[in-house]
Description:
Layout: H1 14-22, H2 27-78, E1 118-120, H3 123-126, E2 139-140, E3 142-145, E4 147-148, E5 152-153, E6 168-172, E7 183-189, E8 191-195, E9 204-205, H4 225-229, E10 241-244, E11 261-265, H5 267-276, H6 283-304, E12 328-332, E13 351-357, E14 370-375, H7 376-385
Amino acid sequence: MRMTHFRVPRRRSLTQRGASLSSGFTLVEIAIVIVIVSVLLTMGIAALNAQIASSAIAATKKKQAVIQDTLTSYLGLHNRLPCPDTDYLTQPDGIENRTNGGTPAIPPDPTQLCLLSYGILPYATLGLPPDAASDGWDNYFSYYISNTPNSFDWTLSTNFQTGNQGRFNVYSTNGLAAPLASTALRTGAVVVIVSHGRNGNGAITAQGTPNTAPALANDEYLNTIACKANVGSAPNCTAVDFWKRDVTDNNVALGGLFDDVVLYLGPGDLVSPLTKDGTLQGPTATTKQTLSNLSDAIVQAIISTGSGTVAPPNIVALPFDAWGNQVLPLVWGPNLAIGKKIGTFCVPTDPAYTLSSAGPDGIANNADDVIFVMPVSTMIRLITLGGATPSTNVTCGM
């Protein structure tokens, strides 16, 4: 009987199988794998860079919020805001600089004018550490303060009124070609605090050295100290105008690349928190107090005559209201005449005189006027208490 033999296939060794598998990857497959890995790496690096940029912007805005709160508190304590630190190129010490100095050796005299309206944040004067004055990219914040005399000056306590306005304008624009079409985000800003962003163009470094300024045709240039120090050096480069735009890396488009982080503070941003907590009176309340004080001075001037004679309007200097406008000349009541004695036959409810402010719009006889009326009866009582006896035989104005 013939035997049938079955051949059992031999198992390949691991080495042989590995060789067979490895021989299965073609150059095309390897290239595809490399492309996929490269894309993943690129996406990862891009995501990482975006995360870093987002963190830096968030840190910058957080610091700007702290600076805003600190400026508000400083205003409440000193009735003024600090000048910029302007000697940053030689000694960035964070101390405000006024015309008489501003160094650790020579403290600034707060009654002196600011040396300049632009510079870096005066962090030491504000009681902040140096780190608080630098943005998320370790460059100093540029600091601009309204210090135009009288009602636009926030740096001298003698000029500060709660109704003061600022001198800066902040615009939103997509380029310099049509500046007239730009949108005014804010007019009358008091303070502008600029981070010069990731590129740092125009910023002062933590070491006190200036970075390269942006191109003159770029919107970023309009936010730099270089522009404010050289007004007119570029289109729309003025002492008072600033630009705020969306971030763009397109340096070819109108206005060029832009990554500045701009914070602007109007009068209300600084004063409203202080009026709410009672640190300051609002401009209307302040003006009412000014008119009341003026009324006291008028009564004292009448008492000083010794006989209760109505004083000429110019016997007392007219002060300024909270909006920086001079109080309007006093208006005597219809039954009173200058040089006449105030008699007891006057109608008690008649106005002896009226004092008024033209209000925030500065235009008299409008609804926003602030008015103080002195009744005849009150005036007679005050004059009598002051030692001057009004006549009892002369009627008002007769």
